[in-house]
Amino acid sequence: MGDIWSALDLAVDNAPRTDGEPIVLAAAATGIVDLIDSSHGDVDRIFGNVGIAPAMAGSPTLKLQLSSFCNLFEEASRQTQNSNFGLWFGNQFQPRDLGLWGYAAVSSPTVGSAVENLVNLFCYHQESSSLRLAQDRNGLIRLEYQITAPEIVERRQDAELSLGMFLNVMREGLSSGWAPEEVHFEHPKPVDWHEHEAAFDAPVYFSQPTNALLFKSDVLMRPMPACDLTLMTMMQTCLERIGGESDRHYSLIDEIRSTIRTGLPDGYPSLEKVAAKLQLSSSTIQRELAGDGIAYKDLVERTRRDLAFAYLKQRQLPLSEIAFLLGYSELSAFSRAMRRWTGESPRTVRAKLIET
């Protein structure tokens, strides 16, 4: 795990800027070159027309302008004469090909927490867009997606590939044959709309207010087969750093907090272990923290508390899993810590957080 973290940390430092334009991580384009080739399209011409180098597609840390990303799939659709190019791209897309975002989802403990990770981390993967969970009038859960940047007008291909990606994340825990109750798209009904019902194995409705997968709530409790809470925490941390604060210069205290966070699923991260990971002496870390008026054990406590509130907002994440993620050996230890912080049980705090 240490080698993976070092490689991702270097990638954060080298991630390119996009001059203030809304971005999407290039991992979302993984496999497009192969699909263009198999569709008898001209890869160089398609990429050249939208100003993207083919080598960028699929990189887990490189950023593309969201407008260029959408144009890439619209251009691929036109050049290959396949109006449903995005639909079938999303249909075959493997969740892990989404990079950090995908791994954070598939390593979650339940389908519900996987979906919540998709929603909560989406802002780091893609900007000027919305992804949210909502309750439908008929009792179904809606996973809604929409680009909110008004200047991006041509976005049908993106909508269809995105819902296909989300579908395959859920199918990781629900089997490859699972299907939603309904699928909604904001764009008008295309000529080959029957292919959409075949791809999703569900009724598909067009000209809707937003793009959405609709499904029953009981599927959210199903376990994810590749649950790995240590990996999930690492992917969450790295994605936040790549996607959310790329222009920020990280201080040593930021590095210490990140190292504490990624080490928590293995138990209490001792000062010596954190110092070894950062290739620093324990005394150097203590001096740095003392300059900010904080002791190491208090920084661990603060990190645990901040994460506890973030995890409790994910209603599908079991309390026992939250305790593990925070480095507690058992749920009772987490409950004692929460009572020390708030005077209330984790269950009571969760109920209040979800209400607000």
Structural class: alpha+beta
User: How would you characterize the largest beta sheet?
Assistant: 5 strands, mixed
- What overall form do the CA principal axes indicate? globular
Helix content: 40-55%
Which regions are unreliable across 5 or more consecutive residues at pLDDT < 50? 1-18, 245-249
Query: What is the percentage of strand-forming residues?
Result: 5-15%
Descriptive report:
The protein is α+β, with helices and mostly antiparallel strands and 356 residues long. The chain folds into 2 domains: 2-221, H-NOX domain (Alpha-Beta Complex), CATH 3.90.1520; 249-355, Orthogonal Bundle (Arc Repressor Mutant, subunit A). The protein is 53% helix and 8% strand. The protein has 17 helices and 7 strands. The protein has helices spanning 2-14, 32-38, 43-50, 66-80, 85-92, 100-106, 111-125, 156-174, 194-200, 229-243, 252-263, 271-277, 282-291, 296-312, 319-325, 331-342, 346-355; strands at residues 23-25, 63-65, 129-135, 141-147, 182-184, 204-205, 211-215. It has a 5-stranded mixed β-sheet. Strand 5 (182-184), helix 9 (194-200) and strand 6 (204-205) form a beta-alpha-beta unit. The longest helix is centred in the middle third of the chain and has 19 residues, at 156-174. Mean pLDDT is 88; it is low at 1-18 and 245-249.
